[in-house]
Amino acid sequence: MRVSLLDLDASTYAPHALHARDRAWSETNCYVDLVIEVLAAHGLEPHASLPFTFALDFEGDQWLFFKQPVAELDALYGLDVQELTIWRSLEEHVFEQTRRGRMTLVEVDAHYLPDTRGLTYRTGHSKTTIGVASIDRHARVLGYFHNAGYFELTGDDYAGVLGLASTPLLPPYAEFVKFDRVVRRPTEELVQRSVEHLRRHLARRPSVNPIVRFAESLDADVARLATEPPDQFHLYSFATFRQLGACFELAGSYVRWLGTHGEPPLPDVVEACERISSGAKSLQFQLARALARKRPLDAAGSLGEMADAWRRASETLAERYLR
User: Fold this and answer.
1) Is the domain of 38 the same as that of 112?
2) Residues of the chain with confidence (pLDDT) below 50
3) What's the DSSP call for residue 242?
4) Which among 201, 179, 198, 194 is positioned nearest to 75, based on CA atoms?
5) CA 250 and chain centroid, separation
6) Fewest Cβ atoms nearer than 10 Å: which of 47, 51, 86, 106?
7) Which range marks the domain in which residue 147 is found?
């Protein structure tokens, strides 16, 4: 009744360096963080999966919820990600896929995830994605990747996550990852393939500076937030400042990785990405204070510097990789 993909111990698991505590954004979003940790746990290099960061765009009411494209996970590492049809209980499907050596990626309610203690665990509800690496149906224990770590849950949390406590109105969205054709490429080949993906993402980067467009909408957003419950700030910050800042911190880490593995070092691009990342973090704190004190947010100067950093990074990378 117990199956497991990896020999992991939740109590001693060490996150990848991309989730180090000294980073501005030790967590980005649930999907990207999950994939980074899953790759690392399988001995694969997560940095190579990050070219998508340079196609990030502002979508009017949010920054894009960025993800590693599944086609690129296949091209880089041989991972096959497919949608899972839920026609039996989720518990049965998770057990079957884990038994076959696959990882189930499933959208669940963070209300039942102990690693969100102090945020939503047993207090609130939010949608998030976990990757199941082990399941014990008899003991009701689930080992799962979530955000920047690997954890276990048991008992009522097991029943809640797998929908055993009540019949859900709709089945959750789920995928499964097949590892039977994993390719462990030499670093030089992995870099070359990753750079080809970078070229494609640079070619489809926003044609108009997205930070300028974000700046144009921010005043109206702040005015609206001032009239709404405090919890709305956290939702807004996740969809805007966190997605922008975390994405560009990853982008800077990616360019630095390229520069230490055969590609020309581009310190100006790294600096520009870090400027965007730190600027978004600072504005998030400034907005929280402004709303608490019922004062306007003066963000024009910071956003102007961030927009200039985006332009510089974009132009330098385009000159290097698109000509």
Assistant:
1) yes
2) none
3) I
4) 194
5) 10
6) 86
7) 2-43+80-178
Q: Are 244 and 56 in contact (CB under 8 A)?
A: yes
Check if the beta carbon of residue 297 is closer than 8 Å to that of residue 286. yes
Mean pLDDT rounded to a whole number for the chain: 96
pTM: 0.96
pLDDT at 1: 82
Amino acid in the structure at residue 18? L
pLDDT, tens digit (0-9, with 9 covering 90-100), for 165-201: 877 788 999 999 999 999 999 999 999 999 999 999 9
**Distance separating alpha carbons of residues 116 and 111, to the nearest angstrom:** 8
CA angle, 90 then 94 then 100, to 5° = 150
Output the six-digit token pair for 139. 């003991």
Please, which residues have CB within 8 angstroms of residue 122's CB and are 6 or more apart in sequence? 111, 112
Q: Where are the beta strands (DSSP E) in 123-264?
A: 127-136, 141-146, 149-154, 174-178
Q: Which of 123, 150, 178 is at the close of a domain?
A: 178
Spatial distance between the Cα atoms of 204 and 213, rounded to a whole number of angstroms? 17
